[in-house]
Amino acid sequence: MQTGSTLYDDRTGVSALRGLGAQARGASGRLLPEIWMQDGAKRVEQALARLLCAEDDGETELMAAMRYATLHGGKRTRALLCLAAGALADTPAHMLDDVGAAIEMMHACTLVHDDLPAMDDDVLRRGLPTVHVKFGEATAILVGDALQAHAFLTLASLDAPGDNRIALVRELAQAVSAEGAAGGQAMDLSLVGKHAELDRIVAMHRMKSGALVRASVRMGALCSIAEDAAHAALYCALDRYTACFGLALQVVDDILDATADTATLGKTPGKDAAAQKPTCASIMGLQAARQFALDLLRDAGEAIVPLGQRAERLAQILQRANVYLSAPYA
Ligand code: IPE
Ligand code: IPE
Ligand code: MG
Ligand code: MG
Ligand code: MG
């Protein structure tokens, strides 16, 4: 895999952040952003490797393909959001690692299916051939199915009270339901070749990408903070944060699809235009879309100000997203 400050292999955005002068505040005693993100991504990847391990009697092709889909790169944004939200309370790291791994399994499932010929028909993901290119279309469909099942199995098997596990399972299921990612993907396909107003694109983005981002943060919090009247303000702040950040993530993805190159993306660029998909970038223009994303990231930051220092890691994730908008656009 290629090295350098690419989006797909520079999982923690460390080199990109360095380039923009990320703040080092080691003297405060807190982990530097690049260190906790690097450490967090590594721990979640170890959890993924453990949870998707081969049986003693050998690895099936399906399991090999599942590991291929999950263990080779990715920025781990959703897992890091979960860890960052878990830091709002003293959540045990081992629990967050498994919850983060479950979220990454589900995310990988959506990517594998998104790349299928019947969907976006993509041949490159995270700098490697897509799962259906490498293992065949039938296996890729099953990889998505099995990853989804493993995500729920992981949550159901957590060493945590039943109520917590049910809340986590419900949260993840909702995020990929017809009201979440699946519904958003259906809307995405229905808009191919059509004109769409911005509010429709925004609604689609909130479902296809925003819902899992929202769940990632809420799941990190739900590990140890009950969603009750005493914590209503906290969950409200988190929802405002994710509403902005989830949308920003997909707007940035749309901008990069139109502006970045294959080596930077680890994906084939220009796919949205080639498939005649309306995006924020195509509707608003690149400069306006970039400003839209920047405004969203700023609003996300403002939403968690009332949470104080304990939300520091959630704020640091926004800084990393900002990096991807630093490139000049035509
Ligand atoms: C890609 O997500 C699909 C979107 C919803 C934008 P990411 O850009 O987070 O993909 P990875 O996990 O880093 O590969
Ligand atoms: C996919 O959006 C969102 C998902 C739910 C997976 P895209 O189709 O724009 O994601 P990429 O560009 O292929 O990563
Ligand atoms: Mg797609
Ligand atoms: Mg796609
Ligand atoms: Mg895209």
Question: What gross morphology would you assign?
Answer: globular
Small-molecule binders:
3-methylbut-3-enyl trihydrogen diphosphate, magnesium ion
- CATH topology grouping: Farnesyl Diphosphate Synthase
The count of DSSP E runs of length 2 or more, i.e. the number of strands, is 2
Sequence of strands across the biggest β-sheet: 1-2
Mean pLDDT: 90
Task: Return the structural class.
Answer: mainly alpha
Key structural traits:
330 residues, mainly alpha, two-stranded antiparallel ribbon, 2 strands, globular, binds 3-methylbut-3-enyl trihydrogen diphosphate
Can you walk through the features of this model?
- There is one protein chain.
- The chain has 330 residues and is mostly helical.
- It has a single domain, classed as Farnesyl Diphosphate Synthase.
- Helices cover 65% and strands 1% of the residues.
- It has 16 helices and two strands.
- It has a two-stranded antiparallel ribbon with strand order 1-2.
- β1 and β2 form a beta hairpin.
- It starts with 13 loop residues before the first helix and ends in a 7-residue tail after the last helix.
- The N terminus is likely disordered.
- One magnesium ion binds next to α11.
- One magnesium ion binds next to loops.
